[in-house]
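Researcher: Please predict.
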Amino acid sequence: MKIVVIGGSGHIGTYLVLKLVKAGHQVISITRGQSKPYKEDAAWGEVEQIILDRAKESNGEFERKIAVLNADVVLDLINFTLEDTTCVEEALKKTNLSHYIFCSFIWAHGKATTMPVIEEQSKFPLEEYGIQKAKSEEYLHNLLPTGEFPGDRYHARPDFRSRVGNYESNGQS
């Protein structure tokens, strides 16, 4: 499968790109070119590296450049605004894309009202970053059932359930 990882040398991308390559996928890593991946590995030799900066491109040009790659899957780890989300959706919906994965963040949920945090829980986004992530989530959530755009969302957050399980099994509170 041809997979584009936007943010391929960052906190999540560094490890995700390597796992995808080792699983046999053709991987294209999109980065701003400002830093090297966190982990050195021979598998990086199999990755196509493209330097693009979403913040420096205007009028949807970044998204059009991603669309030209005609990937089966796009994993977007650095989509920070609703505008980014609508631009990428518009550019990719006419490609052969089978799946767009939006990486959200716990700030879109804000202060937890129950633990573990679940998708259906009320949200109280933190600051503008969380507000924009929550707006993007809602946009994609409303778009996906229409079948016009294949995608999903992922929250970068600690797995509180496994932590709680570890504490309970160790008798700690």
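Model: The beta strands are 2-6, 26-31, 48-51, 73-76, 99-105, 151-156.
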